[in-house]
Amino acid sequence: MKIGFIGGGNMANALIGGLVKQIDPTQIWVVEINAEARAKLAEQYGVQTQATLDHNLQALDVVVLAVKPQSLPAVAQALQPYVQQALIISIAAGIRATDLSRWLGGHPRIVRTMPNTPALIGLGVTGMAALPAVNTADRASATQIMQAVGQTVWLEQESQLDAVTALSGSGPAYVFYFMESMLAAGQQMGLSADQAQTLVMGTFVGAAQLAAQASDPVSTLRERVTSKGGTTAAALEVLAAQQVNNQIQSALEAARLRAMELGDELGGATP
Question: Binding positions for NADP(+) (predicted)?
Answer without folding.
Answer: 6-11, 66-69
